[in-house]
Amino acid sequence: MLREQISAALKTSIKSKDACATATLRLISAAIKDRDIAARDKGNQDGISDDDILGLLQSMIKQRHESAAAYEKGSRQDLADREREEITVIERFLPKQMTPDEVAEAVDAVIKATGAANIKDMGTCMAALKKQYAGRMDFAKASALVKDRLC
Predict the structure, then answer these.
(1) What is the distance between the alpha carbons of residues 132 and 83, in angstroms, rounded to a whole number?
(2) Treating both helix axes as pointing N-terminal to C-terminal, what angle do 50-73 and 77-91 enclose, rounded to 10 degrees?
(3) What's residue 41's pLDDT?
């Protein structure tokens, strides 16, 4: 599903001569193909799932946020703006992101559902969150919340 959406968006961006979108979508496609090849080595002939693609897109967004911040620190606003344009392109393929309140509610619900009692249960909680909310949640922030609640 996501693969087809990305492929269609790439064709559209090429036709409309949107250089930033075209370059970003080509990077996404290449990253997906790399992950597919790695998955085949592990016996998964179908390639990565949509949830894995969502995780890939989130990591790409995180990288671009970090790069934009570094470019701004180095007084390279032009490059920071380019990174933010790429973020906008990538975000088109992600579901609506959860608000901080929704993340907190989800964390509390997972802690209760898994019966987590201490920091040793953090991995179980994070696995459950990733399974339920792939692509919709910033897991770095969720991880901090889980750690805070379990300590």
Answers:
(1) 29
(2) 160
(3) 84
Question: What are the percentages of helix, strand and coil residues in the chain, rounded to 5?
Answer: 75, 0, 25
| Structural domains of the chain sorted by starting position, each given as residue range(s) with its CATH number in brackets | 2-91 (1.10.1510.10), 100-150 (1.10.10.410)
pLDDT for the residue numbered 80: 96
Side-chain half-sphere exposure of 27, counting CA atoms within 13 A = 18
Q: What is the pLDDT of residue 106?
A: 93
What's the mean pLDDT when you consider all of the chain?
A: 91
**What sign does the dihedral 128-131-136-138 (CA atoms) show?**
positive
Q: Which long-range contacts (CB under 8 A, 24 or more apart) does 71-76 make?
A: none
Q: How far apart are CA 53 and CA 104, in angstroms?
A: 24
Instruction: Give which of 33, 32, 77 is closest to 55, Cα–Cα.
Output: 32
Query: How many angstroms separate the CA atoms of 114 and 125, rounded?
Result: 7
Sign of the four-CA dihedral 9, 15, 20, 23: positive
Helix or strand run (H / E) with residue 99: none
pTM of the model: 0.76
